[in-house]
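Shipment paperwork, digital attachment
Item: protein structure file
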Amino acid sequence: MITLIGTIHTDLKLEERLPKMLSIEKPDIITLEYDDNESLSRIVKDNSKLGLKLIKEGLKDKINEKYFDAIINFIKKNLEVNEYTICQDYVNKNNLPLYFVDKYEEMNPFWMNRIVLQILNNLDTIINTSIKIEEGGIDPINLLGYFEQRIEEKYTEYKKAYINNSSYQTKYVTSNLSKGGNIKNILERDNHMASEIRKIYTPNLKLVHIVGLYHLLNDSKKRTLYSRLKDLNPKRRLLNEV
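Attachment content:
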């Protein structure tokens, strides 16, 4: 059996949700949308440090000091947390195999930690929101509620897409393809991931794959991961279900 867990890589509740989902699914094998290329790890770490510096510069003296400290401490706490570290911790505790099945032909020079990216892209929102926040008793999660709301809306958007017919989902894929960017690269990676998962998959064992939401669209033209694995009858789940 194959279960595909759809995530939003900038999910602020990832550290809480992913271990819980894995405990519910009880996999025998875990595969991950990740390329353990050392160059990727270096790019992410270097960019995350630079992003944190830019956040400090962008928020310093523009928001309440306690609010500023809460945001920075929240980032530092989560700086090293991502799907990779959570899965690695889970397999170590449960003595399970973990496979990295993605392959990045080109390294995106802007990749960085999900928390850093989310905050860096929304500095103005943080500044505007902070004006309305009373001093003292600051909880970074509540202060970042705006981002959580946007993330939940994205989960809802994809959930609605998944329950529509394949024609609707195919149009969704085609629409995104027409926008250009790195979508074509994503579809090439889906082909690679599907091929790797087929090599690893054993019918009598439960394989759980953690991957971004886009890859789980049911495309009648078989351009996405889910559509390429559909003959194996994979189950789709959204990470925010837990």
